[in-house]
Design a protein that fits this description.
The protein has 391 residues and is mainly beta. The protein is built from 5 helices and 28 strands. The protein is globular.
């Protein structure tokens, strides 16, 4: 495996905004379906004759083969040090997990059912489970070692995988005769129907209070968003082409657009209301986003590989004012990191307190790259320690 810089990628580099750099992650020619969390990218790879799960660590610049069973593994997802995927080694589809911190692999499902499309958030894993000719959404809690069936409608839809953020699970459901988006809140044990247009809504994703999906109410497929906090629905795309497979992180939404038999990737920033072309070679698919990094699969000369776009500071949108303050954060030493949280022009202890008190708010409302002081791709407590050490 060879990591190639954006300067060597004339085809991809020409297809993105000049303020975004593109990096080729794989060279196997058989890499698909990437997912990203922090500085780690995972994907499925057919270089060994079957489909295995691989990972690339952007910080260590190291590729690791995660699965070696010889059977097929697909649809990887990652959160923190945990990678999950669907696995055929036992003759039926199971969900497996690998913990990078312990180097331990765990079989999550053991009932001999078809368990497909896993997603993970913290210690909770969700997937679509096949039961007696119908599909249901199930969850496994790593802390309690307990499996829970989330739905009982016999109408969850595969091959669309569920998505999870914190205590909220979203999925595609056909109980009303058309595809709708539903949500289950684990904290309240309440199910909510999100879409009610009467036409098909598909491929949901969730981040914080925002749910995005593909919607065909306008007789083509558009991207829509629903904000749980404002109870407001917003149409994101309006150009008449078909858009699919949206993903969301903070204020940024990415999706795949079909345009005259070409597939391209676009991004919309909710804070700037600006749409940006990310990858427009015409043969791209499977976009995913984390912070200022977008990954996807791209085909060139019959080879499928994973690419990554890093959005530059100029494309990350404005620096928002933190709750309780009147001035936007500043970058006193011009190093690209915004250490002056309260906006008074200097770094002081109040900035440390403001950062600590608003860690979750930063994740949802601010460009991660500006506040990721330890440069691991995450907003976490280690950033607070690093911030304190700067005083």
């Amino acid at each position: 495996m060879l990591l190639v810089s954006s300067t060597a990628l004339a085809v991809s580099a020409q297809s993105v905004s000049p303020t975004a750099s593109v990096t080729k992650i794989t060279t196997s020619g058989k890499a698909f379906d990437p997912a990203i969390y922090g500085d780690k990218i995972v994907w499925e790879d057919g270089r060994n004759g079957n489909s295995d799960i691989y990972m690339y660590d952007l910080t260590a610049k190291k590729e690791t083969r995660i699965t070696t069973s010889g059977a097929d593994q697909y649809c990887p997802a990652i959160y923190g040090n945990r990678i999950v995927w669907e696995d055929l080694r036992n003759g039926k589809w199971d969900v497996y997990m690998y913990d990078l911190s312990t180097s331990k692999e765990t079989r999550i499902t053991t009932a001999g059912e078809r368990s497909r499309g896993p997603a993970i958030y913290g210690g909770k894993i969700v997937w679509t489970n096949y039961l007696d000719d119908y599909w249901e959404i199930c969850m496994y809690d790593l802390s309690t070692k307990k499996k829970t069936q989330i739905t009982n409608s016999k109408s969850a839809v595969w091959p669309t995988a569920p998505a999870i953020y914190d205590n909220r699970i979203v999925w595609m459901d056909d109980r009303n005769g058309k595809y709708d988006i539903y949500m289950h809140d684990l904290s309240t044990k309440k199910e909510t129907r999100i879409t009610t247009s009467g036409l098909d809504q598909k491929y949901p994703a969730i981040y914080g209070n925002r749910i995005v999906w593909t919607d065909d109410r306008n007789r083509n497929d558009d991207i829509y968003m629903y904000d749980l906090s404002t109870k407001k629905e917003t149409q994101i795309t309006t150009n008449g082409f078909n858009q699919y497979y949206p993903e969301i992180y903070g204020n940024r939404i990415v999706w795949l657009e079909y345009n005259n038999e070409n597939t391209n990737i676009y991004m919309y920033d909710l804070s700037t209301k600006k749409e940006t072309k990310i990858a427009t070679s015409g043969l791209v698919y499977n976009p995913a986003i984390y912070g200022d990094k977008i990954v996807w699969s791209e085909k060139h000369n019959g080879n499928d590989d994973i690419y990554m776009c890093t959005i530059s500071s100029g494309e990350l949108g404005p620096i928002p004012v933190f709750p309780g303050y009147t001035n936007s954060p500043t970058d006193p030493n011009k190093d690209g990191l915004y250490e002056d949280i309260n906006g008074n022009g200097k770094l002081d202890f109040d900035d440390i307190v403001a950062y600590y008190d608003n860690i979750d708010w930063i994740k949802e409302n601010a460009p991660v790259a500006f506040f990721d002081y330890n440069k691991n791709g995450l907003i976490d407590f280690d950033d607070v320690v690093k911030h304190y050490d700067m005083i």
